[in-house]
């Protein structure tokens, strides 16, 4: 009798367990952040292969089913109906009678400010996603602590777009108060508004004397206290400024006096100021002191006359506050590259360089690492080959935060501009020229912009070119690179889940200690795949997490621990020419990276390369989640290197796929212009010209297929392939790829889909979009005459568009818009030649077309 009861009880408990499993709430972990009507949406999470997908448009209350383009367990790609207007889309899945929490597509998300502080009535920018969309009105509200009343900023609609909002802050915000900031693009009612992770601190109102255009500039309130180093009666020692006398004592005493008096400007009239000094620092900066000249062509400070003695040109003691240089040249005269002579180093907060020229000669980089609230603007930097300083580049900003580097010119020979471990930074409208004639050891590694472990970084409208090229070819030279620490795989581990709770993960095979940075843990295969959480602490076999799992990982799931090498990046509107390699996310973990409207002219590829491998007896795994590659142009016109756009995750000498490397890659509205004939795109290996979405398997043995996707849910939509033997490359590691409206120009084949050795299938679940319905015809654009002499006519089938004209080298020559269905573009001032017109309709996809001016 007892045995029979136990048997019935076991059946009952088993039924309850299965019922709970069947009734578990489905979840969406990763989704496309932005789509237009007719476009595909990627959904990845925890749901069954037969789950249904529904959506609500805007503030409507009647749900509709979404057509599924491709689906498997835990993933679906659906399509927004083409006749649906642009709006906030609330999307969820239903599985076994259970409904997931919704995700919101086209929802405004603010990621960072151009300054962490703002003054009442002052201007500022917010960077993020979906901030201003056509047909809607963006809003920004500020709410003080313990208050339910909001204050609203005023949006500059003309100079705002989906990725940035320009606004004027309310005049009623109170200095010293830390405000919560809410943003909406006006779509979807209350559901469209989100709260920024970062707060905004209100600061005092005042004059931006040095034209820094940041909120904290008003704190430099000592500008009426000016010390003329040649004439001020308060200074016991006067400077001469004739280039012969030693002016070091006069300048340093003026700096010290200004600091002792509570702050001031040390003013250097036009002249040349020679520095000689027996001790280490030629000049030491002080708090609340600015050294200002009459202009960078008129006031020149020279140092480096004593290269045989250890010296530093300019020292910023840790931590210098509210100080800077303006309107002068700081010149190293040492032509020998003495290892004893550095130009400038230090650390500060609320410091700046404005309209300054730094001639570093062959000395080490300008070192301002770990500074906070830093502005470098309208300045010129030059540097030769600094062979006695390990071939460093001209600028070191590692560890900086809340920095703004804009409208500068950099001319240099080796390495690059270093921005590792930064957060909340903006690098915009700079001209960066690497001297291709420089020669150096072939083992030296060179890049242009280097940013590892960087969060909330904007790289906007820069020119990154090689001059006097071609550069020495060491098969490096990436224009923009994030590579996760290179050979130093910081905090990286991987393994198998033993057990987990809502806020922990355990692996009984581990005995963890402290970590060096702030790593995350991601579930990369098995139950809960696609989730990641920040690790707050770890000890023994247990990880403590910052928030609860949406779905508790199952025993046997694979996890990976790593630091994001690139998180919340915007790389937009940059022009590159002559670089061996282009925009590269190399063997580093990335999340929410948007690469938008960049022009790479004979400048390599947009190369996305996460990696999984057995390294020194342990598993290494770094994923790439939610990457948007939108409206870029890469071209090979001189045969120096092939070009491609896409992902080729590496699986190195590891027979089984440990986990899914790429989730949610979206490649929309791009153009790849291959060489004639096609040549290999040489990076670490040879790659074809075109679009890539395949597993790069480096065999130690035959690949063992366990049906674990290497790449899951990539979307290739509205792209162009020019001169490509095959437009898109897939293989057995590619799962649920959607290919829509891929235009072939002199490209004979749409795709090449290969099987890995001894595998019975090529790509899995490759699909295409549904065609537009007859009542929703595609947008048409006509331009004439072509060739043109004076006015280029543009006709649109729907009203509203933005027009940009580029030279074939990528220089932006015109940026204008229309609210009607036609426009006249005045091109008569353009020189004779071929130009690229980009048209971004308010409703529709980016269109690019060449025209001839004669």
TrEMBL record:
It comes from the Bacteria. Residues 239-303 form the Rhamnogalacturonase A/B/Epimerase-like pectate lyase domain. Residues 783-849 form the Secretion system C-terminal sorting domain. This is T9SS C-terminal target domain-containing protein. The lineage of its organism: Bacteria, Pseudomonadati, Bacteroidota, Cytophagia, Cytophagales.
């Amino acid at each position: 009798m007892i045995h029979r009861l136990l048997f019935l009880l076991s059946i009952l408990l088993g039924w309850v367990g299965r019922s709970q499993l069947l009734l578990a709430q489905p979840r969406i972990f990763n989704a496309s952040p932005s789509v237009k009507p007719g476009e595909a949406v990627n959904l990845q999470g925890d749901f069954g292969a037969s789950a249904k997908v529904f959506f609500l448009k805007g503030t409507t209350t009647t749900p509709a089913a979404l057509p599924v383009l491709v689906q498997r367990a835990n993933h679906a790609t659906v399509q927004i109906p083409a006749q649906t207007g642009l709006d906030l889309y609330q999307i969820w899945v239903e599985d076994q009678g259970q409904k997931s929490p919704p995700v919101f597509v086209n929802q405004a998300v603010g990621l960072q400010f151009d300054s962490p502080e703002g003054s009442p009535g002052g201007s500022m920018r917010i960077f993020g996603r979906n901030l201003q969309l056509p047909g809607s009105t963006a809003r920004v509200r500020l709410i003080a602590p313990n208050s339910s009343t909001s204050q609203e900023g005023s949006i500059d609609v003309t100079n705002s777009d989906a990725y940035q909002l320009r606004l004027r802050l309310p005049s009623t915000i109170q200095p010293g108060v830390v405000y919560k900031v809410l943003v909406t693009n006006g779509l979807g009612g209350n559901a469209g508004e989100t709260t920024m992770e970062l707060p905004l601190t209100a600061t005092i109102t005042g004059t931006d004397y040095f034209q820094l255009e940041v909120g904290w500039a008003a704190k430099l309130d000592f500008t009426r206290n000016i010390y003329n180093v040649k004439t001020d009666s308060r200074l016991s020692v006067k400077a001469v400024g004739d280039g012969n006398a030693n002016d070091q004592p006069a300048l340093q005493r003026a700096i010290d006096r200004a600091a002792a008096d509570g702050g001031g400007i040390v003013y250097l009239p036009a002249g040349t100021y020679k520095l000689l000094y027996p001790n280490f620092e030629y000049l030491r900066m002080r708090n609340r002191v600015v050294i200002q000249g009459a202009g960078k062509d008129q006031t020149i400070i020279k140092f480096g006359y004593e290269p045989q003695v250890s010296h530093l040109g300019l020292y910023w003691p840790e931590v210098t506050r509210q100080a800077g240089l303006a309107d002068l040249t700081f010149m190293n005269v040492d032509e020998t590259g003495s290892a004893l002579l550095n130009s400038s180093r230090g650390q500060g907060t609320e410091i700046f360089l404005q309209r300054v020229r730094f001639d570093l000669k062959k000395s080490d980089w300008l070192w301002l690492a770990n500074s906070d609230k830093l502005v470098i603007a309208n300045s010129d930097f030059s540097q030769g080959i600094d062979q006695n300083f390990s071939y460093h580049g001209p600028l070191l900003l590692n560890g900086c935060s809340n920095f703004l580097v804009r409208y500068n010119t950099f001319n240099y020979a080796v390495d690059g501009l270093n921005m590792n471990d930064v957060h909340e930074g903006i690098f915009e409208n700079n001209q960066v020229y690497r001297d291709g004639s420089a020669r150096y050891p072939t083992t030296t590694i060179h890049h242009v912009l280097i940013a590892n472990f960087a969060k909330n970084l904007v790289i906007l409208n820069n020119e990154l070119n090689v001059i006097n090229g071609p550069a020495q070819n060491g098969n490096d030279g990436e224009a923009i690179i994030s590579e996760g620490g290179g050979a130093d795989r910081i905090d990286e581990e991987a393994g198998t889940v033993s057990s987990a709770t809502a806020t922990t993960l355990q692996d009984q095979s581990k005995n963890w200690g402290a970590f060096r940075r702030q790593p995350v843990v991601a579930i990369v295969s098995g139950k809960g795949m696609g989730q990641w959480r920040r690790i707050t602490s770890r000890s023994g076999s247990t990880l403590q997490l910052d928030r609860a799992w949406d779905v508790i990982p199952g025993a046997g799931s694979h996890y990976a621990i790593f630091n994001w090498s690139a998180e919340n990046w915007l790389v937009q509107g940059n022009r590159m020419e002559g670089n061996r390699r282009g925009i590269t996310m190399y063997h580093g973990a990335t999340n929410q990276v948007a690469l938008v409207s960049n022009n790479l002219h004979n400048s390599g590829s947009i190369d996305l390369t996460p990696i999984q491998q057995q390294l020194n007896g342990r598993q290494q795994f770094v994923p790439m989640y939610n990457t948007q590659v939108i409206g870029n142009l890469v071209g090979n016109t001189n045969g120096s290197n092939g070009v491609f756009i896409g992902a080729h995750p590496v699986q190195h000498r590891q027979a089984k796929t440990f986990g899914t490397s790429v989730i949610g890659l979206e490649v929309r509205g791009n153009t790849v212009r291959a060489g004639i004939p096609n040549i290999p795109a040489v990076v670490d290996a040879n790659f074809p010209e075109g679009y890539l979405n395949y597993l790069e398997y480096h065999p130690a043995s035959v690949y063992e297929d366990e049906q674990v996707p290497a790449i899951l849910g990539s979307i290739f939509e509205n792209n162009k392939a020019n001169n490509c033997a095959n437009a898109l490359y897939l293989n057995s590691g590619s799962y649920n790829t959607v290919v829509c409206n891929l235009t072939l120009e002199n490209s004979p084949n749409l795709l090449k889909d290969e099987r890995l050795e001894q595998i019975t299938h090529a790509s899995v679940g490759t699909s295409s979009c549904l065609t537009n319905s007859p009542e929703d015809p595609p947008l048409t654009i006509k331009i004439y005459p072509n060739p043109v002499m004076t006015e280029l006519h543009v006709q649109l089938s729907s009203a509203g568009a933005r027009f940009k004209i580029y030279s074939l080298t990528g220089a932006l020559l015109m940026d204008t818009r229309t609210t009607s269905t036609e426009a006249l573009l005045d091109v008569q001032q353009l020189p004779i030649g071929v130009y690229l017109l980009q048209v971004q309709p308010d409703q529709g996809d980016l269109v690019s077309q060449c025209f001839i001016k004669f």
